[in-house]
Description:
This protein has 494 residues and is mainly alpha-helical. The protein has helices at 20-36, 56-67, 90-102, 113-125, 141-149, 197-207, 223-233, 257-265, 272-277, 282-290, 304-310, 325-338, 341-354, 361-371, 380-389, 407-423, 429-443, 447-459, 467-474, 476-493; strands at 7-10, 39-42, 106-109, 155-158, 165-170, 174-179, 187-189, 212-216, 239-243, 246-247, 321-322. The chain is built from 20 helices and eleven strands.
Amino acid sequence: MTDRPVRVRFAPSPTGHLHIGGARTALFNYLFARKTGGQFILRIEDTDRKRFVPGAEQEIIEGLRWLGLEYDEGPDIGGPYRPYRQTERLEIYRQRAWELVERSAAYPCFCTPERLEKLRQEQMRNKQQARYDGLCRDLDPDVAARRVAQGERYVIRFKMPRHGVTIARDHLRGEIVTENQYLDDYVLLKSDGFPTYHLAAMVDDHEMKITHVFRGSEWLSTFPLHVQVVRAFGWEEPVWIHLSVFLKPSGKGKMSKRESAETLKDGYSIFVKDMKELGFIPEGVLNWISLMGWGVPEDDVMTLEKMIERFEIDSLTPSPAAINFQKLDHFNRAHIRRLSTEDLARRIKPYFLAHNLAVDDDQLLRVVPLLRERLVTLDDCLAFGAFFFSETVEPAPEELIPKGLSAQQAAQIARRVYAILEAVPDMEPVHTEPPLRAYVEESGFNVNQVFGLVRVAVTGQRVSPPLFESMAVIGREKVLERLKRAGDILESMS
Ligand code: GLU
Protein backbone atom coordinates (compact mmCIF):
# COMPACT_ATOMS: atom_id res chain seq x y z
CA MET A 1 0.00 0.00 0.00
CA THR A 2 1.06 3.53 -0.59
CA ASP A 3 1.25 6.39 1.88
CA ARG A 4 0.59 9.10 -0.68
CA PRO A 5 -2.68 11.05 -0.29
CA VAL A 6 -5.39 9.01 -1.98
CA ARG A 7 -6.26 10.02 -5.53
CA VAL A 8 -8.42 7.74 -7.65
CA ARG A 9 -9.99 8.09 -11.05
CA PHE A 10 -12.86 6.85 -13.13
CA ALA A 11 -11.52 6.78 -16.67
CA PRO A 12 -14.27 5.78 -19.10
CA SER A 13 -13.92 5.80 -22.85
CA PRO A 14 -16.74 7.68 -24.56
CA THR A 15 -17.59 4.76 -26.79
CA GLY A 16 -21.23 4.11 -25.85
CA HIS A 17 -23.71 4.32 -23.04
CA LEU A 18 -22.64 4.39 -19.40
CA HIS A 19 -23.58 0.94 -18.12
CA ILE A 20 -23.82 -0.57 -14.67
CA GLY A 21 -20.29 -1.98 -14.91
CA GLY A 22 -18.88 1.51 -15.45
CA ALA A 23 -21.16 2.97 -12.82
CA ARG A 24 -19.92 0.42 -10.29
CA THR A 25 -16.28 1.25 -11.08
CA ALA A 26 -17.14 4.91 -10.55
CA LEU A 27 -18.95 4.08 -7.31
CA PHE A 28 -16.07 2.13 -5.78
CA ASN A 29 -13.64 4.90 -6.73
CA TYR A 30 -15.98 7.43 -5.18
CA LEU A 31 -16.49 5.44 -1.98
CA PHE A 32 -12.79 4.94 -1.51
CA ALA A 33 -12.03 8.62 -2.09
CA ARG A 34 -14.72 9.76 0.33
CA LYS A 35 -13.78 7.17 2.90
CA THR A 36 -10.14 8.23 2.91
CA GLY A 37 -10.62 11.95 2.41
CA GLY A 38 -8.94 11.60 -0.99
CA GLN A 39 -9.75 13.00 -4.42
CA PHE A 40 -11.95 11.43 -7.07
CA ILE A 41 -11.15 12.32 -10.65
CA LEU A 42 -13.05 11.87 -13.88
CA ARG A 43 -10.80 11.37 -16.89
CA ILE A 44 -12.14 10.87 -20.38
CA GLU A 45 -10.11 8.36 -22.38
CA ASP A 46 -11.09 9.35 -25.88
CA THR A 47 -8.04 8.42 -27.90
CA ASP A 48 -9.64 5.52 -29.72
CA ARG A 49 -11.20 7.59 -32.47
CA LYS A 50 -12.70 4.61 -34.30
CA ARG A 51 -14.90 3.81 -31.32
CA PHE A 52 -15.62 7.40 -30.34
CA VAL A 53 -19.32 8.19 -29.96
CA PRO A 54 -20.34 11.86 -29.96
CA GLY A 55 -22.44 12.69 -26.92
CA ALA A 56 -21.13 9.77 -24.89
CA GLU A 57 -19.02 12.00 -22.62
CA GLN A 58 -22.04 14.12 -21.80
CA GLU A 59 -24.01 11.00 -21.03
CA ILE A 60 -21.29 9.81 -18.64
CA ILE A 61 -21.27 13.15 -16.87
CA GLU A 62 -25.05 13.23 -16.60
CA GLY A 63 -25.15 9.64 -15.41
CA LEU A 64 -22.64 10.32 -12.65
CA ARG A 65 -24.51 13.43 -11.64
CA TRP A 66 -27.82 11.56 -11.54
CA LEU A 67 -26.24 8.87 -9.37
CA GLY A 68 -24.81 11.53 -7.09
CA LEU A 69 -21.19 10.47 -7.63
CA GLU A 70 -19.64 13.88 -7.55
CA TYR A 71 -16.04 14.12 -8.69
CA ASP A 72 -13.45 16.63 -7.55
CA GLU A 73 -11.66 17.11 -10.86
CA GLY A 74 -12.85 16.47 -14.39
CA PRO A 75 -13.13 17.76 -17.95
CA ASP A 76 -16.13 19.96 -17.22
CA ILE A 77 -14.95 21.34 -13.88
CA GLY A 78 -11.19 21.45 -14.36
CA GLY A 79 -8.63 20.84 -11.65
CA PRO A 80 -4.88 21.11 -11.01
CA TYR A 81 -3.96 18.35 -13.45
CA ARG A 82 -6.00 19.52 -16.41
CA PRO A 83 -6.79 18.77 -19.13
CA TYR A 84 -8.81 15.67 -18.21
CA ARG A 85 -9.64 14.65 -21.75
CA GLN A 86 -6.87 12.56 -23.30
CA THR A 87 -7.12 13.97 -26.83
CA GLU A 88 -6.11 17.29 -25.29
CA ARG A 89 -2.94 15.72 -23.89
CA LEU A 90 -1.44 14.20 -27.05
CA GLU A 91 1.83 16.09 -26.81
CA ILE A 92 2.43 14.68 -23.31
CA TYR A 93 2.09 11.10 -24.57
CA ARG A 94 4.32 11.73 -27.57
CA GLN A 95 7.08 13.05 -25.33
CA ARG A 96 6.69 10.21 -22.87
CA ALA A 97 6.82 7.62 -25.66
CA TRP A 98 10.13 9.07 -26.85
CA GLU A 99 11.37 9.14 -23.29
CA LEU A 100 10.93 5.37 -23.24
CA VAL A 101 12.80 5.11 -26.56
CA GLU A 102 15.67 7.03 -24.98
CA ARG A 103 15.61 4.66 -22.06
CA SER A 104 15.82 1.75 -24.54
CA ALA A 105 12.48 0.48 -23.27
CA ALA A 106 10.67 1.22 -26.52
CA TYR A 107 11.49 1.62 -30.19
CA PRO A 108 10.07 3.08 -33.38
CA CYS A 109 8.73 0.42 -35.71
CA PHE A 110 8.33 1.07 -39.43
CA CYS A 111 6.59 -2.14 -40.44
CA THR A 112 3.71 -1.50 -42.79
CA PRO A 113 0.17 -2.71 -42.06
CA GLU A 114 0.60 -5.05 -45.06
CA ARG A 115 3.67 -6.68 -43.60
CA LEU A 116 1.98 -7.09 -40.22
CA GLU A 117 -1.08 -8.63 -41.84
CA LYS A 118 1.07 -11.12 -43.75
CA LEU A 119 2.89 -11.97 -40.55
CA ARG A 120 -0.38 -12.52 -38.73
CA GLN A 121 -1.68 -14.85 -41.43
CA GLU A 122 1.53 -16.83 -41.40
CA GLN A 123 1.39 -17.20 -37.63
CA MET A 124 -2.20 -18.33 -37.84
CA ARG A 125 -1.31 -20.91 -40.46
CA ASN A 126 1.46 -22.22 -38.21
CA LYS A 127 -0.90 -22.18 -35.22
CA GLN A 128 1.35 -19.71 -33.46
CA GLN A 129 0.31 -16.91 -31.15
CA ALA A 130 -0.20 -13.71 -33.17
CA ARG A 131 2.48 -11.21 -32.14
CA TYR A 132 5.03 -8.81 -33.52
CA ASP A 133 8.18 -10.61 -34.62
CA GLY A 134 10.54 -7.87 -33.51
CA LEU A 135 11.95 -6.89 -36.93
CA CYS A 136 12.47 -3.23 -35.93
CA ARG A 137 13.40 -3.98 -32.34
CA ASP A 138 17.11 -4.03 -32.92
CA LEU A 139 17.42 -1.32 -35.53
CA ASP A 140 20.32 0.98 -34.89
CA PRO A 141 18.83 3.92 -32.90
CA ASP A 142 20.53 6.48 -35.16
CA VAL A 143 19.17 4.82 -38.28
CA ALA A 144 15.73 4.71 -36.73
CA ALA A 145 15.94 8.38 -35.72
CA ARG A 146 16.94 9.30 -39.26
CA ARG A 147 14.04 7.41 -40.78
CA VAL A 148 11.65 9.20 -38.41
CA ALA A 149 13.19 12.55 -39.30
CA GLN A 150 12.70 11.77 -42.98
CA GLY A 151 8.99 11.47 -42.39
CA GLU A 152 8.60 7.71 -42.61
CA ARG A 153 5.45 6.38 -40.91
CA TYR A 154 6.14 4.68 -37.61
CA VAL A 155 4.62 3.48 -34.40
CA ILE A 156 6.38 3.21 -31.07
CA ARG A 157 6.39 -0.24 -29.54
CA PHE A 158 7.25 -1.31 -26.04
CA LYS A 159 10.40 -3.40 -25.85
CA MET A 160 9.04 -6.24 -23.79
CA PRO A 161 11.75 -8.27 -22.03
CA ARG A 162 12.06 -11.60 -23.85
CA HIS A 163 13.10 -13.69 -20.89
CA GLY A 164 12.12 -14.06 -17.30
CA VAL A 165 8.75 -13.33 -15.78
CA THR A 166 6.65 -10.31 -14.96
CA ILE A 167 5.16 -10.29 -11.51
CA ALA A 168 2.16 -8.01 -11.25
CA ARG A 169 0.25 -7.61 -8.02
CA ASP A 170 -3.50 -7.20 -8.02
CA HIS A 171 -4.82 -6.25 -4.62
CA LEU A 172 -7.69 -8.73 -4.77
CA ARG A 173 -5.97 -11.56 -6.57
CA GLY A 174 -2.43 -11.41 -5.30
CA GLU A 175 0.58 -11.92 -7.52
CA ILE A 176 0.03 -12.68 -11.17
CA VAL A 177 3.11 -14.19 -12.72
CA THR A 178 3.47 -14.16 -16.50
CA GLU A 179 6.32 -15.52 -18.58
CA ASN A 180 7.62 -12.67 -20.69
CA GLN A 181 8.07 -14.91 -23.73
CA TYR A 182 4.27 -14.91 -24.08
CA LEU A 183 4.03 -11.12 -24.06
CA ASP A 184 4.09 -8.94 -27.15
CA ASP A 185 5.86 -5.73 -28.11
CA TYR A 186 2.67 -3.75 -27.78
CA VAL A 187 2.14 -0.49 -29.64
CA LEU A 188 2.25 2.52 -27.31
CA LEU A 189 2.02 5.32 -29.86
CA LYS A 190 0.16 4.84 -33.13
CA SER A 191 1.24 6.16 -36.51
CA ASP A 192 -1.36 8.94 -36.32
CA GLY A 193 0.32 10.23 -33.16
CA PHE A 194 -2.42 8.98 -30.85
CA PRO A 195 -1.40 6.87 -27.87
CA THR A 196 -2.93 3.51 -27.04
CA TYR A 197 -4.55 2.94 -23.66
CA HIS A 198 -1.35 1.18 -22.52
CA LEU A 199 0.63 4.38 -22.73
CA ALA A 200 -1.97 7.07 -22.13
CA ALA A 201 -3.50 5.57 -19.00
CA MET A 202 -0.12 4.83 -17.40
CA VAL A 203 1.18 8.32 -18.15
CA ASP A 204 -1.93 10.01 -16.86
CA ASP A 205 -2.13 7.90 -13.73
CA HIS A 206 1.41 9.01 -13.01
CA GLU A 207 0.95 12.66 -13.94
CA MET A 208 -2.31 12.90 -12.03
CA LYS A 209 -0.75 11.21 -9.00
CA ILE A 210 -3.24 8.37 -8.96
CA THR A 211 -2.62 6.07 -6.01
CA HIS A 212 -5.21 3.32 -6.58
CA VAL A 213 -6.50 2.06 -9.91
CA PHE A 214 -9.93 0.46 -9.74
CA ARG A 215 -10.75 -0.86 -13.19
CA GLY A 216 -12.55 -3.63 -15.03
CA SER A 217 -11.00 -7.08 -15.12
CA GLU A 218 -10.86 -6.99 -18.91
CA TRP A 219 -7.52 -5.25 -18.30
CA LEU A 220 -6.03 -8.25 -16.54
CA SER A 221 -4.67 -9.69 -19.80
CA THR A 222 -2.54 -6.59 -20.47
CA PHE A 223 -1.82 -5.99 -16.81
CA PRO A 224 1.77 -7.33 -17.08
CA LEU A 225 2.44 -4.85 -19.86
CA HIS A 226 1.09 -2.00 -17.75
CA VAL A 227 3.32 -2.72 -14.80
CA GLN A 228 6.27 -3.07 -17.19
CA VAL A 229 5.54 0.34 -18.68
CA VAL A 230 5.27 1.97 -15.26
CA ARG A 231 8.49 0.31 -14.14
CA ALA A 232 10.32 1.27 -17.34
CA PHE A 233 9.61 4.90 -16.48
CA GLY A 234 10.84 4.29 -12.96
CA TRP A 235 7.56 5.44 -11.43
CA GLU A 236 5.84 4.27 -8.27
CA GLU A 237 3.08 1.81 -9.11
CA PRO A 238 -0.46 2.47 -8.00
CA VAL A 239 -2.34 -0.18 -6.06
CA TRP A 240 -4.16 -2.21 -8.72
CA ILE A 241 -7.69 -3.41 -8.11
CA HIS A 242 -9.37 -5.29 -10.95
CA LEU A 243 -13.06 -5.56 -10.21
CA SER A 244 -15.18 -8.62 -10.76
CA VAL A 245 -16.97 -9.15 -14.07
CA PHE A 246 -20.73 -8.95 -14.49
CA LEU A 247 -22.40 -12.01 -15.90
CA LYS A 248 -25.83 -12.19 -17.46
CA PRO A 249 -28.73 -13.16 -15.16
CA SER A 250 -28.33 -16.85 -15.99
CA GLY A 251 -24.76 -16.61 -14.73
CA LYS A 252 -23.49 -17.95 -18.05
CA GLY A 253 -21.26 -15.49 -19.85
CA LYS A 254 -21.40 -11.77 -20.35
CA MET A 255 -24.46 -9.94 -21.54
CA SER A 256 -24.48 -9.36 -25.30
CA LYS A 257 -25.70 -6.22 -27.05
CA ARG A 258 -28.87 -7.97 -28.12
CA GLU A 259 -29.58 -9.29 -24.64
CA SER A 260 -29.10 -5.82 -23.18
CA ALA A 261 -31.71 -4.47 -25.59
CA GLU A 262 -34.07 -7.32 -24.73
CA THR A 263 -34.04 -6.49 -21.02
CA LEU A 264 -35.67 -3.16 -21.79
CA LYS A 265 -38.82 -4.99 -22.80
CA ASP A 266 -39.07 -6.37 -19.27
CA GLY A 267 -38.68 -2.91 -17.77
CA TYR A 268 -35.00 -3.23 -16.92
CA SER A 269 -31.77 -1.98 -18.37
CA ILE A 270 -28.05 -2.15 -17.82
CA PHE A 271 -27.66 1.46 -19.02
CA VAL A 272 -27.80 4.28 -16.50
CA LYS A 273 -29.60 6.60 -18.92
CA ASP A 274 -32.59 4.23 -19.04
CA MET A 275 -32.82 3.75 -15.29
CA LYS A 276 -34.38 7.10 -14.60
CA GLU A 277 -37.02 6.66 -17.26
CA LEU A 278 -37.83 3.19 -15.98
CA GLY A 279 -38.57 4.71 -12.58
CA PHE A 280 -35.50 3.54 -10.69
CA ILE A 281 -34.03 5.95 -8.17
CA PRO A 282 -30.29 6.56 -7.80
CA GLU A 283 -30.30 5.26 -4.23
CA GLY A 284 -31.75 1.93 -5.38
CA VAL A 285 -29.43 1.59 -8.36
CA LEU A 286 -26.33 2.39 -6.30
CA ASN A 287 -27.27 -0.06 -3.59
CA TRP A 288 -27.86 -2.75 -6.19
CA ILE A 289 -24.59 -2.29 -8.07
CA SER A 290 -22.58 -1.85 -4.89
CA LEU A 291 -23.34 -5.40 -3.87
CA MET A 292 -22.00 -6.87 -7.08
CA GLY A 293 -18.44 -7.64 -6.14
CA TRP A 294 -18.53 -6.24 -2.64
CA GLY A 295 -18.69 -8.88 0.06
CA VAL A 296 -21.07 -7.20 2.49
CA PRO A 297 -24.22 -9.08 3.50
CA GLU A 298 -26.42 -9.39 0.43
CA ASP A 299 -29.63 -7.72 1.43
CA ASP A 300 -28.24 -4.69 3.18
CA VAL A 301 -30.09 -1.49 2.41
CA MET A 302 -27.41 1.16 2.30
CA THR A 303 -27.41 4.83 1.49
CA LEU A 304 -24.33 6.38 -0.04
CA GLU A 305 -23.25 7.62 3.41
CA LYS A 306 -23.61 4.17 4.85
CA MET A 307 -21.58 2.71 1.98
CA ILE A 308 -18.81 5.24 2.57
CA GLU A 309 -18.79 4.30 6.21
CA ARG A 310 -18.52 0.59 5.47
CA PHE A 311 -16.31 0.59 2.40
CA GLU A 312 -13.05 -1.33 2.58
CA ILE A 313 -11.00 -2.39 -0.42
CA ASP A 314 -10.31 -5.66 1.32
CA SER A 315 -13.95 -6.66 1.29
CA LEU A 316 -14.20 -6.42 -2.52
CA THR A 317 -14.32 -9.80 -4.18
CA PRO A 318 -12.83 -10.89 -7.48
CA SER A 319 -15.48 -13.52 -8.23
CA PRO A 320 -17.94 -12.78 -11.05
CA ALA A 321 -21.36 -11.41 -10.15
CA ALA A 322 -24.54 -12.40 -12.02
CA ILE A 323 -26.87 -9.50 -12.77
CA ASN A 324 -30.09 -9.99 -10.84
CA PHE A 325 -32.85 -7.54 -11.72
CA GLN A 326 -35.14 -8.81 -8.95
CA LYS A 327 -32.61 -7.42 -6.52
CA LEU A 328 -32.76 -4.10 -8.31
CA ASP A 329 -36.52 -4.08 -7.70
CA HIS A 330 -35.93 -5.02 -4.09
CA PHE A 331 -33.49 -2.21 -3.42
CA ASN A 332 -35.44 0.35 -5.38
CA ARG A 333 -38.55 -0.41 -3.42
CA ALA A 334 -36.69 -0.35 -0.13
CA HIS A 335 -35.18 3.05 -0.89
CA ILE A 336 -38.48 4.50 -2.12
CA ARG A 337 -39.97 3.56 1.25
CA ARG A 338 -37.26 5.46 3.04
CA LEU A 339 -37.89 8.73 1.21
CA SER A 340 -39.69 11.52 3.02
CA THR A 341 -43.16 12.39 1.79
CA GLU A 342 -41.94 15.68 0.32
CA ASP A 343 -39.03 14.02 -1.45
CA LEU A 344 -41.12 11.23 -2.93
CA ALA A 345 -43.78 13.75 -3.98
CA ARG A 346 -41.15 15.74 -5.83
CA ARG A 347 -39.92 12.61 -7.59
CA ILE A 348 -43.25 11.22 -8.73
CA LYS A 349 -44.80 14.50 -9.78
CA PRO A 350 -43.10 14.51 -13.22
CA TYR A 351 -44.68 11.14 -14.06
CA PHE A 352 -48.17 12.54 -13.47
CA LEU A 353 -47.36 15.72 -15.36
CA ALA A 354 -46.01 13.72 -18.28
CA HIS A 355 -49.43 12.11 -18.49
CA ASN A 356 -51.12 15.48 -18.66
CA LEU A 357 -52.57 15.14 -15.20
CA ALA A 358 -53.10 18.37 -13.30
CA VAL A 359 -51.30 17.83 -10.01
CA ASP A 360 -52.21 19.86 -6.99
CA ASP A 361 -49.23 19.89 -4.62
CA ASP A 362 -51.23 19.65 -1.39
CA GLN A 363 -53.23 16.80 -2.79
CA LEU A 364 -50.02 15.11 -3.92
CA LEU A 365 -48.64 15.23 -0.38
CA ARG A 366 -51.72 13.35 0.77
CA VAL A 367 -51.44 10.83 -2.07
CA VAL A 368 -47.82 9.91 -1.32
CA PRO A 369 -48.43 8.04 1.97
CA LEU A 370 -51.16 6.03 0.22
CA LEU A 371 -48.87 5.02 -2.63
CA ARG A 372 -45.48 4.71 -1.03
CA GLU A 373 -45.71 1.05 0.00
CA ARG A 374 -46.91 0.01 -3.43
CA LEU A 375 -44.16 1.47 -5.55
CA VAL A 376 -41.39 -0.72 -6.88
CA THR A 377 -40.47 1.91 -9.45
CA LEU A 378 -41.51 5.54 -9.46
CA ASP A 379 -43.64 5.15 -12.58
CA ASP A 380 -45.84 2.67 -10.69
CA CYS A 381 -47.43 5.82 -9.26
CA LEU A 382 -49.41 6.05 -12.50
CA ALA A 383 -50.83 2.55 -12.33
CA PHE A 384 -51.79 2.99 -8.69
CA GLY A 385 -52.65 6.64 -8.51
CA ALA A 386 -53.43 8.41 -11.80
CA PHE A 387 -57.11 8.41 -10.78
CA PHE A 388 -56.37 10.86 -7.97
CA PHE A 389 -55.64 13.59 -10.48
CA SER A 390 -57.61 12.63 -13.57
CA GLU A 391 -60.78 14.52 -14.40
CA THR A 392 -62.77 11.36 -14.88
CA VAL A 393 -62.15 7.63 -14.69
CA GLU A 394 -63.22 5.04 -17.20
CA PRO A 395 -64.25 1.91 -15.32
CA ALA A 396 -64.86 -1.12 -17.49
CA PRO A 397 -68.66 -1.57 -17.24
CA GLU A 398 -68.42 -5.29 -16.47
CA GLU A 399 -66.01 -4.58 -13.59
CA LEU A 400 -68.67 -2.44 -11.93
CA ILE A 401 -70.89 -5.47 -11.44
CA PRO A 402 -69.89 -7.33 -8.28
CA LYS A 403 -69.66 -11.11 -8.37
CA GLY A 404 -73.05 -12.77 -7.99
CA LEU A 405 -75.09 -9.62 -8.59
CA SER A 406 -77.06 -8.28 -11.54
CA ALA A 407 -76.48 -4.93 -13.20
CA GLN A 408 -79.71 -3.76 -11.66
CA GLN A 409 -78.60 -4.66 -8.13
CA ALA A 410 -75.27 -2.97 -8.78
CA ALA A 411 -77.04 0.17 -9.95
CA GLN A 412 -79.05 0.12 -6.78
CA ILE A 413 -75.86 -0.01 -4.68
CA ALA A 414 -74.28 2.84 -6.61
CA ARG A 415 -77.36 5.02 -6.16
CA ARG A 416 -77.58 4.28 -2.47
CA VAL A 417 -73.90 4.91 -1.79
CA TYR A 418 -74.24 8.17 -3.68
CA ALA A 419 -77.12 9.23 -1.44
CA ILE A 420 -75.22 8.30 1.72
CA LEU A 421 -72.10 10.18 0.71
CA GLU A 422 -74.02 13.17 -0.48
CA ALA A 423 -75.44 13.49 3.03
CA VAL A 424 -72.15 13.43 4.99
CA PRO A 425 -70.27 16.69 5.69
CA ASP A 426 -67.02 15.72 3.91
CA MET A 427 -65.09 12.74 2.58
CA GLU A 428 -62.93 12.12 5.63
CA PRO A 429 -62.95 8.40 6.54
CA VAL A 430 -64.51 9.17 9.94
CA HIS A 431 -67.56 10.43 8.09
CA THR A 432 -67.71 8.03 5.17
CA GLU A 433 -66.75 4.67 6.62
CA PRO A 434 -69.35 4.21 9.42
CA PRO A 435 -72.45 4.94 7.30
CA LEU A 436 -71.20 2.76 4.44
CA ARG A 437 -70.47 -0.12 6.81
CA ALA A 438 -73.94 0.31 8.28
CA TYR A 439 -75.35 0.18 4.77
CA VAL A 440 -73.49 -3.07 4.07
CA GLU A 441 -75.07 -4.55 7.21
CA GLU A 442 -78.62 -3.60 6.39
CA SER A 443 -78.44 -4.22 2.62
CA GLY A 444 -77.62 -7.89 2.83
CA PHE A 445 -74.82 -7.45 0.26
CA ASN A 446 -71.36 -8.25 1.46
CA VAL A 447 -68.40 -5.95 2.05
CA ASN A 448 -66.52 -7.07 -1.04
CA GLN A 449 -69.50 -6.49 -3.25
CA VAL A 450 -70.25 -2.99 -2.01
CA PHE A 451 -66.73 -1.68 -1.48
CA GLY A 452 -65.52 -3.43 -4.62
CA LEU A 453 -68.11 -1.60 -6.67
CA VAL A 454 -67.34 1.74 -5.00
CA ARG A 455 -63.63 1.19 -5.59
CA VAL A 456 -64.09 0.53 -9.31
CA ALA A 457 -66.52 3.44 -9.59
CA VAL A 458 -64.31 6.07 -7.97
CA THR A 459 -60.83 4.85 -8.89
CA GLY A 460 -61.63 3.17 -12.20
CA GLN A 461 -59.68 0.09 -11.14
CA ARG A 462 -59.99 -3.03 -9.06
CA VAL A 463 -56.79 -2.55 -7.14
CA SER A 464 -56.10 0.75 -5.43
CA PRO A 465 -54.74 2.23 -2.23
CA PRO A 466 -57.09 2.06 0.79
CA LEU A 467 -60.55 3.09 -0.38
CA PHE A 468 -61.68 5.51 2.31
CA GLU A 469 -58.41 7.39 2.48
CA SER A 470 -58.38 7.56 -1.30
CA MET A 471 -61.88 9.03 -1.43
CA ALA A 472 -60.83 11.68 1.07
CA VAL A 473 -58.02 12.76 -1.22
CA ILE A 474 -60.09 12.61 -4.41
CA GLY A 475 -62.64 14.95 -2.80
CA ARG A 476 -66.35 15.13 -2.53
CA GLU A 477 -67.17 16.57 -5.90
CA LYS A 478 -65.30 13.99 -7.95
CA VAL A 479 -66.36 11.07 -5.77
CA LEU A 480 -70.03 11.91 -6.20
CA GLU A 481 -69.63 12.58 -9.90
CA ARG A 482 -67.93 9.22 -10.42
CA LEU A 483 -70.57 7.35 -8.40
CA LYS A 484 -73.32 8.99 -10.38
CA ARG A 485 -71.67 8.05 -13.62
CA ALA A 486 -71.27 4.44 -12.44
CA GLY A 487 -74.97 4.40 -11.54
CA ASP A 488 -75.84 5.65 -15.03
CA ILE A 489 -73.66 3.05 -16.73
CA LEU A 490 -75.16 0.26 -14.64
CA GLU A 491 -78.69 1.42 -15.26
CA SER A 492 -78.15 1.46 -18.98
CA MET A 493 -76.95 -2.14 -18.68
CA SER A 494 -79.91 -3.39 -16.70
N1 GLU B 1 -10.80 3.77 -20.69
C1 GLU B 1 -10.76 2.49 -20.08
C2 GLU B 1 -12.11 1.81 -20.23
O1 GLU B 1 -13.10 2.49 -20.43
C3 GLU B 1 -10.47 2.68 -18.62
C4 GLU B 1 -9.87 1.57 -17.91
C5 GLU B 1 -9.21 2.12 -16.65
O2 GLU B 1 -9.93 2.48 -15.73
O3 GLU B 1 -8.01 2.25 -16.63
O4 GLU B 1 -12.19 0.61 -20.16
